């Protein structure tokens, strides 16, 4: 619990900082992209390598800014009643091309009649995307991602997303969700931070179980009804 509180304080400070910085970076980025596009038209032939590096790096900056803008969003997001299984199905459809490319298959076990939950569907989709993307990335030679959804006895929806990847050592488990914590060469280390933040805004929580060489399971618990605040 203490760990959870500490994380959320850090996130609030970062969120406020991010609001300013992300917006400030966006405008010069747009200008840069425009002018590089113009340069590319004239110099693509001689320097195609340079342009491909520039484009990759600009896209990387873009994705970092986008993650931060999610954190920076004002707290008053629109919550609606929505079928969470449907949101998951849409997410899996969205990622199916990437999954096929990595030889990854989905095994979906959706409990029947999961009641709707109050949520911000696009934010929740972001949560699922971030976790599933990590699952795909951790299985370089392919594997199965098992997604199970069921209603718990204490009126929550339990969504578990399990991969067959390398697993996470115990001492690293507590670093998940820390800004910029990544073990990937091209990672941003922002995906899980955003994920934790969104789940927290839904008054839910996440528990991670992992076994080295076997795989990792992300358990997300979301309340069926948002508490009156
Ligand atoms: P990124 O994917 O950019 O590295 P994330 O915040 O999404 O950033 O994840 C942070 C780190 O958590 C990853 O670099 C990886 O070390 C670890 N991680 C996340 N999901 C998994 C998983 N399913 N299996 C193993 N490690 C994971
Ligand atoms: Mg990630």
UniProtKB/TrEMBL annotation:
Residue ranges annotated for the Histidine kinase domain, each copy included: 20-226
TM spans (from-to): none
Superkingdom field: Bacteria
Full-sequence range covered: 375 to 603 of 603
Stated name of the protein: histidine kinase
